[in-house]
Every structure is written in C-alpha cells, then in structure tokens.
Design brief:
Length: about 500
Amino acid sequence: MLAKVFSAAAQGVEASFVEVEVDLSPGQIKEFLVGLPYAAVKESLQRVRAALTNAGFAYPFNKRLTINLAPADIRKEGPIYDLPMALGLLAAADQLPAARLSDYVVAGELALDGRVRPIKGALLFALLARAQKMRGVIVPPDNAEEAAVVEGIDVLAPETLEQAVRFLSGNGELQPVRVDVKALFERESRDGLLDLADVRGQEHAKRALTVAASGGHNILMVGPPGSGKSMLAKRIPGILPPFSMEEALETTKVWSVAGKLKAHEALKFARPFRDPHHTLSYPALVGGGIDPIPGEISLAHNGVLFLDELPEFDRKAIESMRQPLEDRVITISRVAGSARFPASIMLVAAMNPCPCGHFGDLKKACKCNEFQIQRYFGRISGPLMDRIDLHVDVPHVPYEELASQAPGPDSASVRAQVLAAREIQSRRFAGSGIYCNAGMSEKQVQTFCKPDREAGQLLKNAVDALGFSARSYGRILKVARTIADLEGAESLSAAHVSEAIQYRDLDRKKGL
Ligand SMILES: Nc1ncnc2c1ncn2[C@@H]1O[C@H](COP(=O)(O)OP(=O)(O)OP(=O)(O)O)[C@@H](O)[C@H]1O
Ligand SMILES: [Mg+2]
Ligand SMILES: [Zn+2]
C-alpha cells in the first residue's frame, strides 16, 4: 500500500514541499530510497527502524519497501524526514489511518528511543503550511515556539513518535502550541541593551555613531588599544530604531534555517549584534557549505556586524563581503541549485592605527615605520574601504574625562535623534524599496543630495585639494544628506558637507 506524508525542504529562507511517499508491496524483503536522498537520509531509515521497534511497532513488515522523496531535484538535508518516514511507514502498513496525516507538514528527527529531536527551519515550514492552506505542522517540541509565531495554523509538537501516532489515529489529544508574540515582543525588545552614557568623553566618536545609525551607514573606528572602540560598538543596537515585527520575522527566518535559535525560542526580539572573531573562515562569514547555511553576515541581517581588529581577518573573507554589502543579499551557488540569504547589515569595524597600536597616541610612542603602517592599512582593499561611509578616530580619553562624573548623552536621547532622522528618510524613500540614506543609488544621490552653492564650492575645492575618488564623493554626499536630516534641513549646507568630509579621513591617509 502507498502512503504519502508532506514534509518540506529549505532553499535559502524559503521552504517548499517534499512529499515522502512510502510503498510497501509483497515481494522480497528489500529497501529502496529514491529521489536523490543523501547519506543523511539513508541513515535516517536506520533511526526510523530503531525508533519504530523501540516504540513497540512491528518492524520489519516482511515486504518490499520503497521510500521516495519528491521532487528529486532539490537538496534534502539532514534528519528532518525521520518522523514523516516513520509515520508514512505505519500508514503504508495499515497501522495508522492516513486521513489526518495529509493535513500537516511534518518534520522531525527521531532518537532511537522514539523521542522527537530538534530540526532546522521549523519557522519556514510553518510559513509554508500557512501559505499552502494546510491545517498545521507537526514539529519537534524544541521548535514549537518558532513555528507558533505563524498565526492561523495548528502547531503540534509531540514529544515522541508514539504520541504523534496516538494523535493521528484519534486515540490521544495534542494541544496546539501558542505564543503571544505581541506581548513577548513588547516586553523583550529593549532588554539587555547597553547605554552610551557608560562611555565617558569620545564626543566625536559618539557623534559619528549617531550619524551612522541615522543613515544606516557603515563605520570604521580607528584607535589605540583600550580607547573604547569595542565599548562604543556594543552600544550601537541601543541607538538603532526599534525592530519592526516584519524585520524580526525576516531575521528569525535566517536563524531558523541556520539552526541557531535556542530550544523554545520563538523570535529574535532585538536587532542582532554579531561580533565574530577574526579567525573565522570565509564560509562562516558570508555563508556556504555543501548544504548552504547562512554566515555571520546573514545572521546579522537587520542588525549590526561588528568586525573588531579588521586587518586581522582573512583577506578573502573580508573581500567576499563586497558584493553582499552592495546588494544586501548573498547568493551561494551550488550544483543542486543556489541559495539566497538576506544580508542587510550595518557594518561596524574597528582597528588600531598601526601594527603596534599607538600611532598618534599621546600616551605611548609608536614603534612602527611608515612602510609597516602602509602595509597594515593595505590589508583592507580600496573597494572595501570604499563601502565604509564613515571613518572615525577614537583616541585615548584623558584620565580627567574618564574620572569626571558628567555623563554624556544617553542612548535614549541619541535614539530619539536617530528616529527623527529616519522618519524623514522613510517619507523620502516611501515605496522605493530602500529605507535609509546608505542605500541610495547613484541616481537617488543626484536627486536627493543637492548641495547649496557654498557647499558645492567647498566640495569642489576638497576634491581638487584632497583628491577624493568619484566613489568617495558619492559617500560624502550620502553622509551629508544624513547630517542634514538630523537637523531637519532640506538642502546640504557647507557645514553638513564639511562634517561629512571629516569622516573620510582614511582616504587621505591611504591616498585612495
Ligand atoms: N571612554 C571610556 N569611558 C569609560 N570607560 C572606558 C572608556 N574607554 C575605555 N574604557 C574602559 O577600558 C576598557 C577597554 O575598552 P575597549 O575594550 O572598548 O577598548 P578598545 O578600543 O576596543 O581596545 P582594543 O583595541 O584593545 O580592542 C573598557 O572595558 C572600559 O572599562
Ligand atoms: Mg576592542
Ligand atoms: Zn605603531
């Protein structure tokens, strides 16, 4: 007899149906797996056999068994087909009525004793079930909450294979798992944020961070060890606009396919702040692997990717960020199709001004020669540096300032400025698919970044005297636009433009 169970597979952050067809027919005892299953799916059958036997079901069935995972041409990863295969087998062997089974998308790994173990991608499968007007999903308990974020479907989370069987045969109830996303969202989205007021002094750097956060600009901080770069970077999430429900869902999808959500975690409530170590590999940064998984740049989607000690990162890894920084999405090509992961991030990087760290430091003498300094900066290519809108010096704060009791602006007041500037940008870009100044195309720069006469003259002089490249020129205009937005100003004045030029410090140092 033939039985069919709906399951799913993820490509990037989308899921599509996989039909698990199980056929038991008289004949020689033999097992067939078709539909291009990989080694993992074959191992799956061993687990299914053990789980069924240990749960007290009769197996083998002394029949010829064929399992087909369709369609054949999509990659099916991992052990998520254990549970659908087990249920399909029981249905094919007439030990389970097939009627209820076809209402659900089923996914779950089985432990040898029949417990249902966590999987990747449950949120995507729940979205698929809703889009396809299915009644719901049957997923592992650890993944129930992320699936339950999707409203309008039943999320069933059996602890064991036996529980699933009892429910499907009408011999036991399973309560649909529910989460009150709205309540959770309101409670948790501001938790755990650090305050900018903890950082003493550094007014210049704080201003640059305000501008960066307002326009969504990438920023590089340069300063000696211990000057507070990491401290400042960690406070950026607290001055960014609140996470919208839509953004939260987008980010959670990435975490779900990456298998990075904690057990029972429903949603990413706060913007991600990722600070990977500089020893991380190229695929770990941008994504990859045989079964493509998202990298740090995608885990940071809608949030911050902080690369501390930028020149220490693998050159190839750093350079591979150029395309996603531009497109805000990364495509990973594989023989079995390609995967697209979103990667809309604010890049925040930090580095020392030279190999010893003390170039320009008033507290300690630098031991490096000019050649060593040039080579140090040379580890970051021009095109990458080009995608960083603001460069800011973070010098040592004098002891008196550190000790002084006067706190600078706190995150709440800076955030209010950021929100006001973003408001102007949302109106400006309504319906155009971009949200902030950093995302402007060349054409949009021409339309929205008109310097007044004095500012135009200043820019011309700066380009002549300082030799800015055409790309740097565009960056300056975008940043000047954000500075004007912070003031609520219509056109770009000389003051806006000259502040923006200040943030191109390294162009001059590097002669880019
Ligand atoms: N402006 C400041 N206000 C308050 N504390 C500060 C400030 N600057 C540095 N500190 C203190 O010094 C410590 C080191 O700062 P932080 O780790 O941010 O430096 P860094 O610039 O990232 O250094 P490195 O280049 O070594 O990574 C902080 O944990 C904090 O205690
Ligand atoms: Mg640091
Ligand atoms: Zn030095």
